[in-house]
Amino acid sequence: MNNTGTQGAIGAVWRIESARVIAAVARMVRDVGLAEDFAQDALVAAMEQWPASGVPDNPGAWLTATAKRRAIDHIRRAKNLDGKYAVLARDLQEHDEGLETDVVERLDDQIGDDLLRLVFVSCHPVLSTESRVALTLRLLGGLSTEEIARAFLTPTKTIAQRIVRAKRTLSDAGVPFEVPVGAELADRLGSVLEVVYLIFNEGYSASAGEDLIRPGLCEDAMRLGRILAELAPKQPEVHGLVALMEIQASRFGARTDSEGTPILLLDQDRGRWDRLLIGRGLAAIDRALTLGAEPGPYVLQAQIAACHARAPIGKDTDWAEIARLYGVLGRVVPSPVIELNRAVAVAMADGPEAGMTIIDTLESEPALRAYHLLPAVRGDFLERLGRYAEASAQFQLAASLTDNARERDLLLERARQCTVRAG
Question: Which among 59, 94, 129 is the end of a domain?
Fold first, then answer.
């Protein structure tokens, strides 16, 4: 393999293995910042050595062993070790010669717990939402700072600062490298799932920029979700989130035309939906429901997505069931956005007047004041009622509130069409 091929292989290995390497080292040093530094040292060593020696048979174990050696060296050099670190250093020194073999033999046994610990540390509520997202993509997604910045259309310096501050905050707060237990587990798991879904949603419906979809972010979120489902197999909400992402991602091929223009859900060619992803999503829903708990927010949203996935054509969609599920979801996690979505389902099941009644109750909601989908939905209802001039005004308002260029163009086109029909 030539140098270019080797460097490409190193990049692919790093994307797959970096989280495992960082997690394994973080268990030793109890500091994710230090763990990432040692993992990066191992990556540099691979870039220096593998072009000449070739990619090892077990590159993940090689990286982990190298990173652990860097950690051991750091521990040995530290001048003010506390008692625990001193014992750890002596123990590690005794086993240093067989470290790589030890890593290969024990990696599968320990890596699940290590990764789960890293997930909970990266998504710790002591961090801001933006910092949790950036740190998770960096440590668990294997993305560089530049890649994260490009994905979120944010300056690289800003993302770098968020990551540095996040590591410092975790260190200063003394956040333990462990999986929470009992009641704390449910609370902390919600934070983890929120971060993964935020990453997915930014890829699924980009909040700004020229592209409606950024599949790379969705793929990163789905990969994290699948890992989490294997690490926490008895948590129904984890399977619910995986199901939701799988089913939503199944529509990628039909969501835009060849020029990137958005295609509304009911206008999409369902023959282009990915049936494999839909099948995986439906299986994940079944897995969640068999665990016996009352459906939580992600399971309910996945069930709503499944209603769309099961309908061979748009007119066969069970809108009454979708409206019912949104009603349940709104009771579990009250939200004006959920109520807005329920209004759409009610309008499809019972007519636009029924949906408009719900919309009218949402006008004063502060959370929706600058939310472009509120006037967009109102515009859709008005258009269906034949009130084209009013609908055009609502579509224009919605267009002014979105930062996504593709979405804006679609809304302005709908406004133009309504103006023409209004005469």
Answer: 94
- The parts of the chain modelled with pLDDT lower than 50 are 81, 85, 94-111
Write the CATH number for 55: 1.10.1740
Is there a domain that residue 374 lies in?
A: yes
Q: How many CB atoms lie within 10 A of CB 420?
A: 10
Residues 6+ apart with CB under 8 A from 334: none
Give the pLDDT confidence score for residue 63 in this predicted structure.
Answer: 94
C-alpha radius of gyration, the chain, whole number: 25
User: Which of 41, 63, 94 is the C-terminal boundary of a domain?
Assistant: 94
Nearest to residue 191, comparing CAs of 102, 125, 105? 125
Residue 416 lies in a domain: yes
CA dihedral 320→323→324→328, nearest 10 degrees, is: 170
**Neighbouring-strand partners of residue 403:** 208
- What backbone torsions phi and psi does residue 256 show, to the nearest 5 degrees? -135, 155
- How many domains does one find in the chain? 2
What digits encode the pLDDT tens for the residues 41-92?
999 999 999 998 888 989 999 999 999 999 888 877 765 545 554 555 555 5
pLDDT per residue over 155-174, tens digit each?
999 999 999 999 999 999 99
Would you say residue 90 lies in a domain? Answer: yes
Query: Which residues span the domain enclosing 22?
Result: 1-94
